[in-house]
Amino acid sequence: MDLDGSNVLITGGTGSFGRRFVDHLMHKYATERVVVFSRDELKQFQMRQRFPISDYPNLRMFIGDVRDRDRVFTVMEDVDIVIHAAALK
Q1: CA dist., res. 47 & res. 51, Å (int)
Q2: Given strand 7-11, what is the order of strands in its sheet?
């Protein structure tokens, strides 16, 4: 699948799969925008350290929970592909 030019949303983007998938997207594809959606502020902070906005301006991060329907619809705006990697524990 060619993701070049796509807007990709990854729910649970700071989990183990999500982190690896974001890394893959950032280095293999020329995505228009990658949106990480997760509820863990610390992991988002750590991920932002790994992917600084100055080097990765197309990476966006949002705090939220997949059980919050309105928040999910907000982050899905203009998204072409959704990778659902969020786990409810």
Answers
A1: 6
A2: 59-63, 33-38, 7-11, 81-84
